[in-house]
Design goal:
By secondary structure, the chain is mainly beta. It has two helices and 20 strands. It folds into two domains: 20-181, AttH-like domain (AttH-like fold, Beta Barrel); 198-349, AttH-like fold. It has helices at 208-213, 338-349, and strands at 24-33, 38-47, 52-60, 72-80, 89-91, 102-107, 111-118, 123-131, 136-137, 150-163, 166-181, 221-227, 233-238, 248-258, 261-264, 271-276, 283-291, 297-308, 315-323, 326-335. Strands 1, 2, 3, 4, 5, 6, 7, 8, 9, 10 and 11 form an eleven-stranded antiparallel sheet that branches. An eight-stranded antiparallel barrel has the order 12-13-14-16-17-18-19-20. It is globular and about 55 Å long. It starts with 23 loop residues before the first strand and ends with a helix. Residues 187-195 have low confidence and may be disordered. It comes from Sphingopyxis alaskensis (strain DSM 13593 / LMG 18877 / RB2256). It holds the Pfam family DUF7065.
């Protein structure tokens, strides 16, 4: 990664690149507790030109995927932010149900401490994220980050979760990311228009549900990652709309990590194929075949262990991966336009 794309200490603070009311800057933190089949997120998009933040914290296991049945779920929308908030040391605004979470930078670009408590629900978080590598922006001009700066950072997450009053150890691999810049409208909006559904499909053929899945211009994003405890693993974005009739879709904007060394994915030789449940439409099993810029190969298979869905279509899933002879853990983030998802699911359920 070139120096002009490197993360700098000032990037730990908020940016403001335009007067676009949809300009957004996120901070996202994720980790898992495999023995409990638990995944956990903290996510906070800040809208600098509206001086408001929406944040949510949730944890999910295999006992329920919707908001009422998740292990924990809380969302605060459009909370007013003070002038010039300092992202290096901040407590996000809460609401009538209690305060928000705190975030403090301990080492620029590398180490952070997060805390949160919801006494009424018997839920709390207290952990550090220590980066396993310096964060770097993905190259601009390549999907899905055409213009907005974005980076992902793999890290060791260590601390505690309190769930229904039970104190649970956190000690594993997690991923955080940051994105900032103007968006020109709601994130899910797409300017693409096509004459008919079939003209949306770049490579027709194969199962009908797969044809629907890879229609272009729908705003489809699928992001997957998996790492062993030592950090060996992969991360990348699946270019579903560029997939073939057999279900293999190219991957880019990601990495292979082995022996502590990162290599950017070769999008011409990196791909994923997913298999979906005809009951839910969600991925159940994935095959991943990757090659990085150094020519290193990595093959992995993953199975969904637990699932959460805020709206009943797009999901985040805790994934168990077989990686280089060992077991790794990570996520499947599967983002859909609702109408597109329903059409795909109808095709999966069809009997004639």
């Amino acid at each position: 990664m070139t120096d002009d794309l490197a993360f700098r200490p000032e990037d730990d603070r908020y940016h403001q690149l335009s007067d676009d009311p949809y300009e957004t800057e996120t901070n996202w933190w994720s980790f898992n507790i495999p023995e409990r089949k638990l995944g956990c997120w903290i996510h906070a998009p800040y809208y600098p030109n509206r001086k408001a933040v929406t944040w949510r914290i949730f944890a999910w296991d295999d006992e329920g995927y919707d908001q009422a049945r998740m292990a924990y779920y809380r969302k605060v929308e459009e909370a007013p932010m003070p002038d010039d908030p300092d992202l290096t040391d901040i407590i996000f605004p809460g609401d009538a149900n209690g305060p928000g979470y705190s975030l403090r930078m301990l080492e620029p670009g590398m180490k952070y401490h997060l805390q949160y408590e919801d006494r009424a629900r018997g839920f709390a978080l207290d952990f550090t994220h220590g980066g396993l590598h310096p964060p770097h922006r993905f190259p601009p001009g390549k999907p899905p980050f055409m213009a907005t700066p974005h980076f992902d950072q793999l890290g060791h997450v260590e601390g505690w979760m309190t769930l229904r009053g039970e104190r649970i150890r956190i000690d594993g691999i997690g991923v955080r990311d940051r994105t900032w810049g103007p968006r020109g409208g709601p994130y899910a909006a797409s300017p693409k228009r096509y004459a008919s559904d079939m003209e949306r499909v770049k490579r027709p053929g194969g199962a009908h549900w797969r044809e629907i899945e890879r229609e272009r211009g729908r705003g489809r994003i699928q992001y997957i990652f998996g790492h062993r405890h030592d950090g060996t693993g992969f991360l990348g974005f699946v270019r579903v709309a560029d997939g073939d009739a057999d279900g293999w879709a190219p991957m880019n904007a990601g990495w292979i990590r082995r022996d502590g060394c990162f290599g950017s994915l070769d999008p011409a030789r990196s791909r994923m194929r997913t298999f979906r449940s005809p009951k839910t439409g969600w991925s159940t099993h994935m095959q991943v075949e990757l090659v990085d810029e150094q020519g290193r190969e990595m093959k992995s298979e993953g199975f969904a262990v637990s699932t959460m869905s805020e709206a009943g279509y797009g999901v985040n899933q805790l994934m168990r991966w077989d990686i280089d002879g060992g077991i790794g853990w990570g996520e499947d983030q599967d983002v859909w336009n609702p109408a597109h998802y329903v059409r795909m699911l109808d095709a999966l359920k069809a009997t004639v």
